[in-house]
Amino acid sequence: MSNGITNKVRFVMAKLFTFIFLGMALAMIFSLAQSVISSILIGEEITQIFLSGINTGIIALAVFELALVINREYSEAEEDGDAVESLRRTIPRFIGTVCIALSLEGLIMVIKYSQLDLAGNLYYPVAIISSTALLLASLGAFLFLTRKHG
Question: Which is higher by pLDDT, 109 or 17?
Answer without folding.
Answer: 17
